[in-house]
Amino acid sequence: MDYESPISQECNVEAEIFVSQGQDQFERKEYEEAGKNFNKALDKYLSIFGDGHPEIANTYNLLGKVYEAQQEYLKAEEYYLKSHIICLDYYGSGIRVINSFFKMVDILLKQGSKKIAEAKSYILDLLKVLPIDLDDEDDSQNLDIAEYYESIGDLLHGLNEATESLNVYLKALVVYEKHLEEQDRVAYLHFKIGNIYLEQNEHQKALDHYAGSLLCYKDPILKKNADEIFTRFMKTVSNILPTGNYLLAREILKRLSDFMSKHLPESTISQGKINLETARIYLQEQLVDAAYENLIHALIQYTGNLTPENIEEISDSFVEAAISLNNSEKHTYAIIVLIKLKEIYPIVEDNPRLGEIDGLIGDILIIMKNYREAAKYHKQSLKIYLKCYDPADIHVARVCHRLNLVYFKLGVLGQSVVFFKKLRTVQRKLFGKEDMKVAESYQAIALCEQSTDCLQDMPAKEMDKLLY
User: Fold this and answer.
1) For position 463, what pLDDT does the model report?
2) Is there a contact between 54 and 63 (Cβ–Cβ < 8 Å)?
3) DSSP letter string, 314-363
4) Do the beta carbons of residue 258 and residue 274 sit within 8 Å?
5) Which end of the chain is more exposed for a tag (fewer CB within 10 A), N or C?
6) Residue 123, Cβ neighbours under 10 Å: how many?
7) How does DSSP classify residue 433?
């Protein structure tokens, strides 16, 4: 039952037995049998009390629950409405009426968009029956009222009624801040209000409530909720980024970082994530120096905290950031980030990701025309790839191509030819002997072996064409 039936000397014992049997059957999910017993009870109650008694309302409610459990929502609505009309007429206001309103809203929303207008209407009517005046001496009653307001705010927000939702949330917040000891609930309500202000582009008010949310967290609830707090604010930042409001996103991250530093200094991984996300935002704004600074801080904070299980996702972000730095012509920044990423990488033998990082460093060094260092990193990449992949894998082919190019640029033509031949071998296994790339490779090698002088005179861009 949703509420206890009043004890009455006139209550029919048989009706109570039918209700009790029906409830047992409902718990066992024997819905058809439960419905039969509730209908028998209804007949008894109607013969005793007439149409407008709370026992009748309660039995209609039980029948509504049976149909709802079977997902016959329209039929459930019919019985919930009968119950609601009796409750509203008999009680006028109070807990039973409030619960009845919530039940009507819930069953209407379960029926989809066609019932949204009706659901909104019930919500607005519900606001009219809630007490307006608070009792300074009764914390319990005040909190009950505030909880109803918060629940209504949730419903309205879900129905895209942001302004109405905000008004109701603010009423609940006033009561919570005065009477509620559970500060994590106050914090979450601040957060929800901040989100609505964010939707309405009132950014300062949003920030104020986000800050208010963080201020509510004190020990011991702080450590218990640390992951939830962090995830909640990081998700908000993710929702802001598509709008292009990078300044607001960075401000939220800064406040979250200050909060974590003050209250949870041991949460270095969380701080690393904040700095990494901040760096990515700076890159979007093309503030490359600031991005680089945050990337270095993030790498320091991740040091010693990475495992084979979490490194892949995190390293993807650093590699992506390094590529962005390189594209911004900050080649040295990009190389430093990648080298430091390798330094904090968990010791795992034959990890192809390390081969990828070495190869990327080598490619950037080629852009910088530092061919000797590029050769060192590409050879390290090749060594790893040969342990991780088949010798005819495309990764091996790419490194052979790079080494062929690097040694050609260095003028070490013998080594260039060696890697050109390896490239040709891999191409032949990958594409077949008749492939055009394989044929071109044979021609280039023959040219190289016939006349070293001829190869030395060949323009670099012409040689490059043969390598692709």
Assistant:
1) 43
2) no
3) HHHHHHHHHHHHHHTT-HHHHHHHHHHHHHHS---TT-HHHHHHHHHHHH
4) no
5) C
6) 25
7) T
| Predicted pLDDT at 254 | 94
- Identify residue 383 by its one-letter amino acid code: K
Instruction: Give me the domains of the chain, ranges plus CATH numbers.
Output: 1-92 (1.25.40.10), 367-468 (1.25.40.10)
Q: For residues 255 and 230, is the Cβ–Cβ distance under 8 A? A: no
Residues recorded for the chain:
468
CA 375, 380, 383, 389 torsion-angle sign = negative
Which structure tokens are listed for 425?
């071998």
Peptide linkage before 220 cis (omega within 30 of 0):
yes
Amino acid at 468: Y
How far is it, in rounded angstroms, from Cα 259 to Cα 254?
9
Q: What is the pLDDT of residue 450?
A: 43
What lies within 8 Å, CB to CB, of 454 at 6+ separation is 447
Which pLDDT does position 350 carry in this prediction? 75
Residue 128 tokens read as 């009219």
Here the tokens at position 89 are: 């007429």
What tokens were used for 49? 């009390």
Q: Find the helix packing angle between 413-431 and 436-450, rounded to 10°.
A: 160
Query: Using CA atoms, how far apart are residues 288 and 74, in angstroms rounded to an integer?
Result: 59
Question: Which of the 8 DSSP states describes residue 2?
Answer: -
Check residue 105 and report its DSSP letter: H
**Distance separating alpha carbons of residues 352 and 291, to the nearest angstrom:** 27
**CA 432, CA 425: separation in Å to the nearest integer?**
10
Q: Could you give the CA distance from residue 369 to residue 344 in angstroms, rounded to a whole number? A: 27
